[in-house]
Specification:
The complex is a heterodimer of chains A (239) and B (356).
Chain A: H1 8-46, H2 57-82, H3 87-110, H4 129-136, H5 152-175, H6 179-197, H7 205-229
Helix pairs in contact in A: 1-2, 1-3, 2-3, 3-5, 5-6, 5-7, 6-7
Chain B: H1 68-106, H2 118-138, H3 146-149, H4 156-172, H5 178-196, H6 226-236, H7 249-274, H8 286-299, H9 307-334
The chains are: A mainly alpha (239), B mainly alpha (356).
């Protein structure tokens, strides 16, 4: 008697695997949705920077910090769950959300938050990829094992969001009477632009977003030009 | 790093290629391929015939700032990733081509039989030997976390799965199992590394597509953690063992979807040229096999995350099943009447379906 065309045990094996995969995706989607909400709230609070003078930052930043705390908690749960499976199998599901979370952390730190006893926060501080990893308590650019981590692409895309936000802040800080901040933002964005120019980019999402940085450069240059025309640049050298 | 930099030195005099003064070849790494100069037939840069070379367009000098070192590091990491992806993509295209050649060779088989006709077996073996070497070159780049990272550059494994399952069917009239496929590809990869050393080459018989070795771990490897298993396996073995790579579940599924198309083509040709439905007539023929395969996939839940692709492939499989059904019917009705070489008209009752 010839063997059957298909081994009878194969169906259940494959069906179980497909169902397991579906269940993993559902669970992931739940966690990611929660992270999305945490991020949306924090982003909402951050919009207030465009209408808050620097003197009132401490209160605002601590409100941002409470939003970030929630992001971190949810990310830890996401990391624990996702690390059970091959990273690159499902990472596209949380990439965008995680990026946005990273952007809130970067912006918070740049505005003077994320201080610690050993290293107080200061305006203009750019967290490195490693420092972001420490904040989220996850590895970064992981290569030697397969687990949840933050990638270089996510960091760079988050940084670009921050650049876009800051270019808007440059204009609004002038309105708030804080020309020094506008000048500092301008220098920062131009430096970053130089950095982005060093990357060898392929025709992917990163390349498209990097293109937007030059528009941010133009915006802040226009602001600084407007200021200098009217002698509104602060007397001391901008950092 | 010299990208983007242009020193203000005066234009070099005409020089032969290879001499020190000859400007270096176009640097493609910046993506700025417009910076080259036209050269004459001696390979020397062309200059304006009447007048000095115009001043080069001033390029923005790269000014280092506080963030430059960070970006340089990130750049190096991204470059390594892109290079790896491009390398894998090139080899993948080669493996795809070779797999297709195997399939074409197998389509010259006329009956299901444990032994393929010698010439066809020889060609299959020779293609597998080439694939084997190529897989071995890929293996270092797809270890651990990289296995899924570069899966879009590894589409060749679907084509290879199609070829191997097809060969298996023609020899055994059964469907190769995913862990058998995986084990076979791992073995191919290992052998490819060995023959690179020149130790054993053509003298060693290639693993026959029909005689798949037992799954390496002795248990089913179709879990989500295919690459983790490969990684563990790599650690278990002594350091001298060559690296290996294996197929994922998706490679298997999409390979088998395409297998149904090849089975349909095989059924069409073999029926026309032999006058009989392929398979052991007293047991089951390819018609029943196609039905079983079709129903198997109809019953399986759809794989999440790729619904559109799955639906498309499933639809094509359905059409293949119906074409073979038609063959079976025609054979039953008209079997004895048909002259040798007559091919049934498959387009009659299926408007708008494609051959592929």
């Amino acid at each position: 008697m010839a063997p059957p065309m298909i081994d009878p045990a194969l169906f259940d094996q494959l069906k179980d695997n497909i169902e397991k995969d579906s269940s993993i995706r559902k669970d992931l989607e739940q966690i990611i949705e929660e992270l999305n909400q945490n991020v949306s709230y924090t982003q909402g609070v951050l919009t207030k920077i465009h209408s808050t003078p620097r003197s009132k930052y401490p209160a605002l930043l601590s409100q941002v910090e409470s939003g970030i705390k929630k992001e971190l908690e949810t990310t830890t749960r996401l990391a624990q769950f996702a690390s059970q499976y091959p990273y690159y199998k499902y990472n596209y599901k949380w990439g965008r959300t995680l990026q946005d979370a990273i952007a809130t952390v970067l912006l918070h730190a740049w505005l003077g938050g994320m201080g610690s006893d050993s290293k107080p926060g200061e305006v203009g501080r750019l967290l490195t990829l490693e420092e972001v990893g420490h904040v989220f308590e996850v590895p970064v650019n992981l290569k030697d094992r397969d687990a949840f981590h933050i990638t270089i692409e996510e960091y760079l895309l988050a940084l670009i969001s921050v650049v876009e936000d800051l270019s808007r802040l440059a204009m609004n800080s002038v309105t708030l009477g804080d020309t020094e901040l506008a000048v500092q933002i301008s220098g920062f964005i131009k430096d970053l632009h130089g950095g982005f120019q060093m990357l060898n980019l392929k025709n992917d999402i990163l390349r498209k977003r990097v293109d937007s940085v030059k528009y941010a450069v133009k915006k802040v240059e226009d602001v600084v030009y407007d200021l200098s025309l009217r002698n509104l640049i602060p007397a001391k050298d901008a950092q | 790093m010299e990208e983007g930099k242009m020193d203000g030195a005066p234009a070099p005099k005409r020089a032969k290629i290879g001499s020190e003064n000859n400007p270096k070849p176009i640097d493609n790494s910046t993506g700025n391929t417009m910076s080259g100069f036209k050269r004459d037939r001696h390979g020397n840069e062309k200059r304006f015939n009447n007048g000095p070379r115009p001043a080069p367009k001033p390029k923005v000098a790269v000014v280092r700032n506080a963030y430059t070192p960070m970006f340089e590091q990130l750049r190096d990491e991204l470059d390594a990733h892109h290079d790896r992806r491009d390398r894998l993509g090139k080899v993948s295209r080669d493996i795809t081509g070779l797999s297709k050649k195997i399939i074409f060779a197998l389509q010259r088989v006329r009956t299901i039989n444990p032994d393929l006709p010698p010439q066809i077996q020889a060609e299959v073996d020779s293609r597998l030997a080439e694939i084997s070497k190529l897989l071995a070159t890929m293996a270092p780049d797809v270890q651990g976390i990289n296995r899924y990272r570069y899966s879009r550059s590894l589409m060749c494994l679907e084509e290879l799965a199609e070829a191997l399952t097809f060969a298996h069917y023609l020899k055994t009239q059964t469907l190769l199992k995913p862990d058998e496929l995986s084990a076979f590809v791992e073995e191919l990869t290992r052998k490819g590394a060995v023959s690179e050393d020149g130790a054993k080459d053509k003298d060693e018989p290639m693993p026959d597509a029909g005689n798949t070795p037992a799954p390496a771990s002795g248990e089913q490897e179709t879990t989500d953690n295919d690459n983790k298993l490969a990684e563990k396996e790599e650690q278990r073995q002594p350091k001298l063992e060559p690296l290996t790579m294996s197929t994922t579940e998706d490679d298997y599924f999409y390979g088998v979807f395409d297998l149904s198309g090849e089975m349909m083509r095989f059924a069409t040709t073999s029926t026309a040229l032999t006058g009989k439905m392929a398979g052991a007539e007293d047991e089951r023929t390819i018609v029943e096999d196609m039905h079983e395969l079709g129903s198997f996939f109809e019953m399986l839940p759809m794989k999440a995350g790729d619904r559109k692709q799955w639906e498309k492939k499933l639809d094509v499989m359905r059409q293949s099943v119906r074409k073979v059904e038609r063959l079976g019917y025609d054979r039953m009705i008209r079997g004895s009447e048909r002259p040798q070489g007559w091919v049934p008209d498959l387009t009659a009752d299926q408007p708008g379906d494609d051959e592929e």
